[in-house]
């Protein structure tokens, strides 16, 4: 019989968890802590959103909501759009992505490479909130089907079934703190759900933007647009991340650890280091949600 080889879809997940060696080494040594980075940029389309994108499409297929050849519509700030464009290419769907026009050129180009169409909305007209409303309007007009990452339970399910168990296994159950940037909240909700089911004392920390900060991938939603998948009772603490400290940490991650990551990943690390200063004998894991090469045009590096 011919050997069965994996497809590109099969390479989503099972990402490395690595120990930081230089950044915050003095703090970790003093308090007997370890900071671990979950390298989600190793997914095939380059981000943690690959997990949710494939999960949402698979689940919609199982429920008979979509079938190959249909048109999918999604509002996105970048990584979910790239992941959905890849997933749509794999499974045979047309993809229309709606996003604010202030997103990096690299992310737009990546979506286009996978064959997606995109609609740019004026950032000053309401940003992601306006994009979300437009996606639902287009669905009501019969132009496609919205998977709706903000309300779709298959989003956090990807992390309940994948990212959370991986972190648990990779740390042999020793994880004490989990840190994630908060955007659509699928990652932090799903991972927290799983980890707390294994060890209720695991502390969950969400990184949110400080007032005035505009960090791609980190959001604080108004009450009217709070993602329906978010479970606030799962998040124990929040860290407000300043724009400049996130950008500086992104440069440090590349130069001191060899991890070329995006700005929201660096923001999560800022939160992880603050945590490491307060606790002892801790195993702290944070999500490196994507790669830094899709932010080069922003001149951060």
TrEMBL record:
It catalyses: O-acetyl-L-serine + hydrogen sulfide = L-cysteine + acetate. It holds the Pfam family PALP. Its cofactor is pyridoxal 5'-phosphate. The modification N6-(pyridoxal phosphate)lysine is found at residue 49. Residues 8-290 form the Tryptophan synthase beta chain-like PALP domain. GO terms for molecular function: cysteine synthase activity. Pyridoxal 5'-phosphate binds at residues 79, 183-187, 264. Pathway: Amino-acid biosynthesis; L-cysteine biosynthesis; L-cysteine from L-serine: step 2/2. It comes from the Bacteria. The keyword Amino-acid biosynthesis applies. GO terms for biological process: cysteine biosynthetic process from serine. Its EC number is 2.5.1.47. The keyword Transferase applies. Keywords: Amino-acid biosynthesis, Cysteine biosynthesis, Pyridoxal phosphate, Transferase. Belongs to the cysteine synthase/cystathionine beta-synthase family. PANTHER family: CYSTATHIONINE BETA-SYNTHASE. NCBIfam families: cysKM (TIGR01136), cysM (TIGR01138), PRK11761.1 (NF008735). This is Cysteine synthase.
């Amino acid at each position: 019989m011919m050997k069965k080889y994996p497809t590109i879809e099969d390479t989503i997940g099972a990402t490395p968890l690595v120990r930081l060696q230089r950044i915050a080494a003095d703090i970790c040594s003093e308090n007997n802590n370890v900071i671990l980075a979950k390298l989600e940029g190793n997914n095939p389309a380059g981000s943690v959103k690959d997990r949710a994108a494939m999960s949402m499409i698979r689940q919609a297929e199982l429920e008979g909501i979509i079938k190959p050849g249909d048109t999918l519509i999604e509002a996105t700030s970048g990584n979910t759009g790239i992941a959905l464009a890849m997933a749509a290419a794999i499974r045979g769907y047309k993809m229309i992505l709606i996003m604010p026009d202030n997103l990096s050129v690299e992310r737009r180009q990546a979506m286009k490479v996978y064959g997606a169409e995109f609609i740019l909305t004026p950032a000053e007209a309401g940003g992601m909130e306006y994009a979300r409303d437009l996606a639902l309007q287009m669905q009501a007009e019969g132009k496609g089907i919205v998977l709706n990452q903000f309300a779709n339970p298959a989003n956090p399910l990807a992390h309940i079934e994948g990212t959370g168990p991986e972190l648990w296994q990779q740390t042999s159950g020793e994880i004490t703190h989990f840190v994630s940037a908060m955007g659509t909240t699928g990652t932090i909700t799903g991972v927290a759900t799983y980890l707390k089911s294994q060890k209720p004392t695991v502390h969950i920390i969400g990184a949110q933007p400080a007032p005035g900060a505009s960090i791609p991938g980190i959001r604080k939603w108004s009450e009217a647009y709070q993602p329906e998948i978010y479970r606030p009772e799962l998040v124990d603490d929040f860290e407000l991340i300043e724009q400049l400290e996130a950008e500086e940490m992104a440069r440090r991650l590349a130069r001191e650890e060899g991890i070329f990551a995006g700005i929201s990943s660096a923001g999560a690390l800022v939160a992880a280091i603050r945590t490491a200063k307060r606790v002892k004998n801790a195993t702290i894991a944070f999500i490196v949600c994507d790669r830094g090469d899709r932010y080069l045009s922003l001149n951060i590096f």
